[in-house]
Structures
1.
Amino acid sequence: MTALPEGFLWGASSSPHQIEGGNINSDWWVYEQRSPHFTLSGDAIDSYHRYEEDMRLLAAAGLTAYRFGIEWARVEPLPGEFSRAELFHYRKMIDTALSLGLTPVVTLHHFTSPRWFIEEGGWLGTTAIDRFSSYVRRVCEILDGVEWVCTINEPNMFAFMILMARTINSDAVPEIDTPTMQGEGGFVLPRPLPETSRRLVEAHHAARAIVRELTPAKVGWTTANLALYAESKADEPALLDERYAREDIFLEGARGDDFLGVQAYSTQAVNARGPVPHPEHPDNTLVGTPYRPDALEHAVRHAWKITRGVPILVTENGIATADDGRRIAYTEDALRGLAAAMEDGIDVRGYLHWSALDNFEWGHWEPTFGLIAVDRTTFKRTPKPSLAWLGEKAKTGMM
Ligand code: BGC
């Protein structure tokens, strides 16, 4: 057992589009209607109205932190037009978390952008950095008392959605399935284009400077930590190449941050042709990835090395499964690996499980990651045994 540092956070994570519902000004609202692969987010799980109940369940179980996001498409529904009502809404969420004893970890951008922003040219357009910066500036006005701010979620996964965004000004149908699901052909995500990666690093640094200027919060971004490995010795050069383009460029972008949000689920082999499709296997998760709880330890060790020692907050780790016992087993193992990394001196500040609730998995409802089940007709929440289990861990102060 590893004794945890004072203030170590134990919590769960979410993102606005996946739980709120009715995100009609966002780009994803459009993609969902256009893509033959996707089902609609619709009302999602109505957390826009039920966030207090959600937070109460987490706090009652014993968790001490909740990661949630602010939805840009709501806060700035038209270019330069900010909604005071929406800013108040998110301020109320922060107050609710604080009053329940949950440390809020606030994400500024989690995959969705306002539809107008994409139509205007999006992340590769000439206005991108200014637009994002002015949104971040407004949001900083409501962040009083927030200690942890994540600028952009998983730029490496998000780079793929920037390709999808090219379809928004035409009738073209987004060709690729959801960013987080491994299709039958295996790893479906193309490599991020270098200009996209550079632009996202630039956007992160711009947001980081603003958050630092206007708030005392710790600021960082959260990356998809892919735990890539070479299929054979001969594939090592290919691994370095893929790993740089898909992950390390973003970890380098975190140098100088106050923390890095590590997000790990599974591992991924690489050979000379790129990421190797995952063979079908009865142990695979509901998003088609192998069952690899050790991914978290690999991810944390690699991130620590490439960022050159930026403190780590695990902002996502979990498993898509309908079997909650398996979720507990997976998480238990993942935490064992995390504890081993901490024993070796890696500075980890907290563990936030993905996800607080079963939610909209980017076009799909079947993959369930939640500690809490939700009936999508009545919106009734039912905590799973894994929530109580994680809450008990939190109370021990040990890992
Ligand atoms: C994302 C989440 C997603 C989760 C599970 C991460 O890629 O940040 O939005 O639901 O993984 O696939």
2.
Amino acid sequence: MSKRYAGITGTGHYVPEYVLTNQELETIVDTNDEWIRTRTGIRERRILKDKDKATSFMATRAAEEVLERTGTDPKEIDVIIVATVTPDYMFPATACLVQKNIGATRAYAFDMLAACSGFLFALTTGSNMIESGRAQKVLVIGADKMSSIVDYTDRNTCILFGDGAGAVLLEAFEEETGVIDYVHYTDGDDQCLLYQPAGGSKRPASHETVDLHLHSLRQDGRPVFKKATEGMADVSAEIMKRNNLTGEDVDWLVPHQANLRIISATANRMGLDPSKVMINIDKYGNTTAATIPLCLCEWSDRLSKGDKLVLTAFGGGLTWGATYVKWSV
Ligand code: COA
């Protein structure tokens, strides 16, 4: 069998209607618009207010959009992977709920947890399935309802995160296109720099864990900032070197949207003109697994077949990586 490639043939997204502005946050915690904008680049973020709706709702809407835009029958989908740290339930997987909602009756479905690197790792998994010949069409979704695990009394973290979902459809190609190469890393030594202390099997929910706010995410911002800046810049430079790419060759940088200063440092290191960097952190904040597919969807009209994209992310775990994609449509 000749080598197969996994190309991205379409994108979809969903963001909730409710806009949580920096000005509204000023009324909730001791912060101010100027501090948030200059330290992070964030002006506002979207929040899924409806108590009955969760991550699967947003993931389903993103999936429906990509199916519609590509004219794909859900029964053609072989695999659904949802990257998330905020699943509807501990189990079943959010991907199973999406599978039911969209009527992908032939697909098997599972979640992937790699925090802010979740979408990249899921993209790698999905593309490997296609390259192996075992799958023809794979839906890869990044979706997070971060508002469900954010402590809105903690000014260090509550200003950073928002809710949203993005999806891509991967399909098999004979020509060299789609996911060309990837470099992924993990460093479990620093697992507690960014994590959700309770709710898992180590500290199941109890009165004490609730009283201590241990079901909300915790982040030691300064070291995470330093490691994220180094990690994203280094891994992006590494993937460029492996593929003989210069800043001139790369058409788009698609960075995880955690902090505008981290994004700028990565673009600088790659020798990239700022006009080639996808940035929407100002509107959505950090939507964890959704940031990269949200960017791909928002920029999809400006992408042409053959465009060279470097996707890069850094997140809890610690996890980080970069993926080199040639746009397929
Ligand atoms: N409003 C106003 N002041 C705030 C604040 C807020 N929301 N949050 C923190 N501060 C204060 C701090 O208390 C501190 O005050 P002090 O000097 O009197 O102690 C001061 O601002 C500086 O805090 P510091 O944490 O050093 O700020 P920073 O420049 O590192 O920015 C982050 C904080 C969170 C924006 C930054 O560390 C960051 O982006 N970290 C990484 C995020 C990330 O990449 N996440 C992981 C990948 S998903």
3.
Amino acid sequence: MTRVLSCIQPTGQVHLGNLLGALRPWVAGQHTCDAYHGIVDLHALTVVDTPGVVGDDTLELAAVLFAVGLDPELATVFVQSHVPEHSQLSWVMECTVSYGELSRMVQFKDKSASREGAFISAGLFTYPALQAADILLYDADEVPVGEDQRQHVEITRDIAIRFNHRFGDTFVVPEAVTPPAGARVMDLQDPTSKMSKSSTTDAGCIYVTDPADVVMKKFKRAVTDSETDVRYDREAKPGVSNLLDVLGAVTGRPPTELADEFTQYGPLKVAAAEAVVELLAPIQARRAELLADRSELARLLRVGADKARTVAAATLDRAYSAIGLLPA
Ligand code: TYM
């Protein structure tokens, strides 16, 4: 059975990009794959320094993951800091990746540029090493992610191949898998930038918790272009193509086919908004129910961490003995 691993950071609120690019494909995958999904709280430390925030966000994010449909009976959902092997293997990864490779990471360039003049942690730079540990610990064949994470999966492959070459076959070399539509949901106000938790305004970002009227308003105000024809062309018509892509991802239909059904932007915006409202309604209701019993959520995460540790500990042992560290 294909082993799948993918993770999400507990920073800010979950948005439509996370949902379409990652969470929905994870839910679909849990029925056919052996699935592991982590809430990567240690990654969040690269940009968060306020006490208490990460823990609260972790539990809230767990509620969203279960509300979207991850089933603790099928998928292993865990918190990264509950599985100490992530930090342990991360050091080995840091020693297997070069300064030059880390310097080429687009996410580091973007995030450090946006924090100019503020504190830029060393963790922000070495972040891909921890991410490689997340993936390689689980012998993942596939890593279902949005398009923006491809580079991080590529560097993980390079690290795995280098380690296997140095110390003998130890890690499975994983592959990134992105969904056919929704792999790169763009900001509704700036369709040349991806929808992101760190967007400068909320107007271009649909949050999973947005009420129906807010979703409708954000879509109606979405930036398109001065032409009038509806066609799927991400280069020439990024705004319209983004709306078609969202509608396609939600309905499971090809964006090019959907384009033929609209002659004006207005009805396309409304159709995309309505589809998203319908998608979000049951998720919001289930999320509220789950958050009413936080101790049950915490219990589910402990069960997930126990399962994750069994796999992660075995892989860490294998890596240490491949290197030839003196057994404890
Ligand atoms: P994060 O927390 O930023 O995002 C979680 C997932 O959502 C996807 N995503 C998007 N997909 C489509 N359109 C968008 N606008 C959009 N924005 C985000 C991301 O691609 C991701 O799949 N570094 C990772 C977390 C991580 C990880 C891992 C992922 C840590 N360890 C191991 C996979 C495997 C991140 O910051 O994702």
